[in-house]
Amino acid sequence: MIIEIIISEVDFYIIRNIREKRILAGMTQEELSIAVGASESYIGNVENPKEPQKTNHRMLAKIARILNLKLYHEIYPEKVPNNDLVKIKLKLLKKRNHQDEINENGCVISNIEILGIKVLTEKEIFKFERETGRYKFRKIIKT
User: At what angle do helices 57-66 and 9-24 cross, to 10 degrees?
Assistant: First the structure.
């Protein structure tokens, strides 16, 4: 399935890193969700580009502690992203079971293929915020 989403560049980076760190820690989405005190589907919704669920700083701190991360930059980007909102065209890849999420080199296998990224202009951001509400930062626009 191919979708397009509008998301903040920093949120997209964080979402990808949460998934990678969770898998490398040997945890399922459900296990991490329960460990942070959220519903069983919470992390699955955060990691799923089709879901509008996003996390907050408190939950990121809980996730970092549970995954035994020592520095926030293990989740956050090292540098401030250059862009605010971006439109990303993604190909959703076949869902793997937990045991098949790491390749023979110990690297996490991606669940998406990025087909394109377009930086939104200030005019497009204004229109997006007006249509969706100022604090919604992820939206599926095409499937």
Answer: 20
**pLDDT score at 136:** 53
Read off the pLDDT of each residue in 14-26 and give the average, rounded to a whole number: 94
DSSP structural state of residue 8: E
- Structural domain span for residue 87: 2-142
Q: pTM for this one?
A: 0.86
The CATH number for 45's domain is 1.10.260.40
Count: domains in the chain? 1
Q: pLDDT tens digits for 32-43?
A: 999 999 999 999
Are 63 and 55 a contacting pair, CB within 8 Å? Answer: yes
Q: Is the pLDDT of residue 121 over 80?
A: yes
Q: Tokens standing for 9? A: 């560049």
Short-list 4, 46, 40, CA closest to 21: 46
The whole-angstrom separation of Cα 112 and Cα 129 is 26
Strand partners, 57: none
